[in-house]
Amino acid sequence: MNRPNLYLYSLLNRPQLIYPADGAAVLAALLPGARLDGYNGPLSGEPRRGGEYYVHAGVAVIPVIGKLVHRGGGMDAWSGVCSYQGIEDQICHAVRSGHRVVLDIASPGGTSDGCFALGDRIRELVAAGALIDAWVSPRALSGGYVIAAACRRIVMMTDAEVGSIGVAWYHADFSRQIEDQKVTITHFWRGDHKGDGSPTMPLTEGAVAEFNASMDATYDRFVSFVAACRDLSVDEVRATEARVFRTADAIRLRLADATLPSLKDMIMSVSDNARLNDAAPGSGTQASQPPSGLPPAVVAQALTTAGYPSLIAGMLTAGAVTQAALDARIASAGQIKELCQQFGVPEMAAVLVESGMTVEAARSVANAAKVSREGAQPVDTAIPDTEGPAKPPVLDYRGMYQSLNAPYRPS
């Protein structure tokens, strides 16, 4: 099987938990040689790297962006395709690291393979005490809603969408095209249903019956899963008829819990709620007191002298500023500025510095900007692995994602 066709093969002749319009768009866009699967690892799959998320105020924000597939070591949210395997790896990594988790969901869904396994895994972690919440911006549909429903709560931006609790199926019949091209294909198989779903022959009545039975089973599981997660009856979930609901209606129908204007508000609500819970009356614990820091005037003067007055507000509003944190912030800002000069994109320095990203993340973003400007092939800015076969060049999405979404994070 050709690697570029992996996503096509996962989309055809399988139950799909994807919003139909997006599934049709994928089918229309799939051309010979297209790499819509976003995969650049071995066909057998490989473990996903842990930690591909950013952390602010003790909250790990994990992107669930684009169409969803089961496996793929080289996939990430920035490629437009995200794997259930990769999402689970990141959630487990974040929980083991002691972080609260926000899943930043913007997905029309995807394949059914692996979807409910991830949903069950999230439910297990939540039941064990992990704080995993879903942030919907702008949509969590079908398979994306499975992931959201499994979380402790679902919070939507003001004009977001959830739902599409249903199943789709796609089959491509090329038999008439082959006939028009004067091509004859002879099929050999053992087992009456071995040829069910073949794109080179029309669907038989038996194949249609088998496919419908599979869809019914997937739909029943989808409905039961949402009903259990959202404390709804099966009939209430079925009554949605796979419709898509905007924020107000979703909350009214108990398909979501609340609305907030931005991801930053979502992060702070999780962090603030957690701190309030830590110091709840009768809990026997007190909220930790922030460490004493430098006077605001000293912080402001140091940043102004170093040439970064735009960082003053961010540092002061983040809490007490120690001398070590101040020195580290100025040093990282200087390194990012120097990197932008080296990559020939000095105009990006201010934005990257103010985003609060790490120096390595800024390196990736600056390199991507340089590549885009020159129209050259992107290169991997990480230290090359000297063992094993050479790896194809990849573009690390983390820096770009952080620059777009991350509020200031003190060093």
Please describe the structure with a list of short key phrases separated by commas or semicolons:
single chain; alpha/beta; 2-enoyl-CoA Hydratase, Chain A, domain 1; 2 domains; eight-stranded mixed beta sheet; two-stranded antiparallel sheet; 43% helix
- Write down the overall geometry: globular
Fraction of residues in H or I helices: 40-55%
- Measured by DSSP, the beta-strand proportion falls in 5-15%
Low-confidence stretches: 1-9, 29-51, 275-291, 376-386, 390-395, 406-411
Order of helices and strands: HEHEEEEHEEHEHEEHHHEHEHHHHHHH
Overall number of structural domains: 2
CATH topology of the largest domain: 2-enoyl-CoA Hydratase, Chain A, domain 1
Q: What is the terminal separation in angstroms?
A: 46 Å
Give the number of DSSP strands.
12
What's the tally of helices?
16
| Named CATH architecture of the largest domain | Alpha-Beta Complex
Tell me the name of the CATH homologous superfamily of the largest domain: 2-enoyl-CoA Hydratase, Chain A, domain 1
The helix-and-strand class reads alpha/beta
Please tell me how large the radius of gyration is.
Answer: 24 Å
Mean pLDDT across every amino acid position: 75
Most strands sheet: 8 strands, mixed
Main CATH class of the largest domain? Alpha Beta
Give structural notes:
- Strands 2, 3, 6, 8, 9, 10, 11 and 12 form an eight-stranded mixed β-sheet that branches. The protein has a two-stranded antiparallel ribbon with strand order 1-7.
- The model is unreliable at 1-9, 29-51, 275-291, 376-386, 390-395 and 406-411 (pLDDT under 50).
- It has two domains: 3-185 and 207-270, 2-enoyl-CoA Hydratase, Chain A, domain 1 (Alpha-Beta Complex); 296-385 and 392-405, no CATH class.
- It starts with 5 loop residues before the first helix and ends in a 6-residue tail after the last helix.
- It has 411 residues and is of the alpha/beta class.
- Helix 13 runs antiparallel to helix 14 (349-355).
- It is globular.
- It is built from 16 helices and twelve strands.
